[in-house]
Specification:
With about 190 residues, the chain is α+β, with helices and mostly antiparallel strands. The protein folds into two domains: about 100 residues, no CATH class; about 70 residues, no CATH class. It has a three-stranded antiparallel beta sheet with strand order 1-2-3. Helix 4 packs across helix 5. The longest helix is centred in the middle third of the chain and has 26 residues.
Length: about 190
């Protein structure tokens, strides 16, 4: 049984199926489908615990967003654990994570956003060329364009115009936020 569940190609396919199901929102990849396509020679009662183990490992790795060193340490610990995984399985899992980490991370981030998020920001400083008050002509104006959006939807843009006084107020508030964050970080 162990040799049947170590096949690199089948395990890689299984991990891909689990990732599609758990992280990329494709619920059609059922236990029966994965079993039938990847491990038809293994009895279902032996496949189920193996599937649960691989699902748990993949979710642990993804939720911790493991880098190479963390992944190596985690998989080494799993190979030494009784009822853990083999070194061949660890190698397949490592290779799979290294090639799919970015897509899985992106998918998890998109799933965790309920509302629009900032996609882009651009700014420039202009000089007013027209105004109802002649004193405001040729004064500097900060133009800020914010791009908001939700995954898979069109962006919305918000354009803001600030005079010198407003820019100074914003910078002061940002300094206060930075000080608060630094204070909290030092207390932690």
């Amino acid at each position: 049984m162990a040799g049947e569940l170590e096949g690199c190609k089948s395990l890689s396919g299984l991990l891909g199926g689990l990732a599609q199901s758990a992280f990329h929102g494709q619920p059609g990849l059922t236990e029966e489908l994965l079993h039938g396509q990847l491990y038809p020679e293994v009895p279902l009662e032996e496949f189920r615990p193996f599937l649960a183990k691989m699902r748990g490992l993949l979710k642990s790795i993804a939720s911790a967003d493991m880098d190479s060193n963390q992944l190596e340490a985690f998989l080494t610990a799993q190979t030494k654990k009784q009822g853990g995984i083999t070194s061949e399985q660890a190698a397949v899992i490592s290779k799979f994570w290294k090639s799919h980490k970015t897509k899985i991370r992106e998918s998890l981030m998109n799933q965790s956003c309920w509302d629009n998020r900032l996609r882009g920001l651009s700014w420039r400083v202009d000089s007013k060329s027209q105004s109802r008050q002649t004193a405001q002509i040729h004064t500097p104006v900060a133009m800020i364009e914010l791009e908001f959006g939700k995954g898979g939807q069109e962006s919305e843009f918000l354009c803001l115009e600030f005079d010198e006084v407003k820019v100074k107020q914003i910078l002061k508030k940002l300094s206060e936020v930075e000080e608060s964050i630094n204070t909290l970080m030092q207390a932690a």
